[in-house]
Amino acid sequence: MEANVPARPKPRRSLPEFLNVPWHLGDLGLFVLGWIGIQVAAVIALAIVGQSVPVVEQFVTGAQRGDIGPSFTLDLLDAVVGFGLVWAFLRKYKVGWSMAGWRKVDMWRMFKYLALVLVGFIAVVSVLLAVLAVLLHGFNANQAQTNDFTQGASAHPSIALVALVLLPPVLEETIFRGFIFPALAKRAGVVWGAILSSAIFGIAHFQANISVYTFVLGLVLCFMYLRLKSIVPGIFLHMLNNYLAFIALSSTK
Questions:
Q1: For residues 27 and 192, what is the distance between their CA atoms, to the nearest angstrom?
Q2: Cα 94 from Cα 123, distance rounded (Å)
Q3: What pLDDT digit, counting tens, does each position of 52-70 carry?
Q4: Does residue 150 carry a pLDDT above 70?
Q5: Local confidence band at 117 (pLDDT 50, 70, 90 cut-offs)
Q6: What is the pLDDT of residues 168-226, one digit of tens each?
Q7: Closest Cα partner for 143 from 129, 128, 156?
Q8: How far are the Cα atoms of 6, 33, 36, 43, 199 from residue 183, in angstroms, in the given order?
């Protein structure tokens, strides 16, 4: 009689080679602490220096008031710190920017995916927001997104274009899809890596309906990265999404 041999657990599906990055969850923690901490320290330093330097005081006052110039300067600081930290980890592990998703892509294949994914994304997010509006009391699916740049889009279109359409997709795709998603996928698998990184991406937008919208967008962008092995298509999709919002804001009086 043959002995009963317990069935072996099914091995987890192997991670795609391009997601097998050298950094890990501990590095993600350091990255987040550094990204937030450096900016907080800079703001505190500006407030202290502003007490004795009139120009700096004017800058701080303008930033608190939401003036677009100081706000854009702080936005650039956010980008410099984010890119700088990613670069530091790439240097630490002696790898290039291709490891963070900056790879060449077939342009024709990219545009085919963009067309199909955009239609599917709009349909899914529209249904999801409508369902949440019914199920969750107080959830406003149509609440307008507001920040210093959305408010100044019509008055300062050039600055708002850079701050809303051009800069965030490049920065956020590098960080969330190129840096955070692979590290989470390496630990939890591709599906959970996509869900967790997209949840972080959504929460980072600090507004209920926008967080839901960006969570779904994050999943779509992870899918694009998985299929095309480059964050470049996601950057284009992200820019297109932001540009449509920018046009709507610019036309608002």
A1: 18
A2: 42
A3: 988 989 988 988 887 888 8
A4: no
A5: confident
A6: 999 999 999 999 999 999 999 999 999 999 999 988 877 777 888 899 999 999 999 99
A7: 129
A8: 32, 16, 19, 30, 15
Residue recorded with tokens 């779904």: 216
Pick from 219, 19, 228, 241: which is nearest to 110 by CA?
Answer: 228
Task: Please give the Cα distance from 166 to 149 (Å, whole number).
Answer: 13
State the virtual CA torsion across 63, 67, 69, 73 in degrees, nearest 10. Answer: 30
Q: Which amino acid is residue 84, in one-letter code?
A: G
Give start and end residues of each alpha helix (H) in the chain: 25-50, 54-65, 68-92, 107-135, 148-151, 157-161, 167-172, 181-188, 190-203, 208-228, 232-250
Distance CA 56, CA 211 (A): 34
Distance CA 181, CA 31 (A): 13
What's 108's DSSP letter? Answer: H
Cβ contact 39:78 at 8 Å: yes
* In the predicted structure, residue 2 carries a pLDDT above the cut 50: no
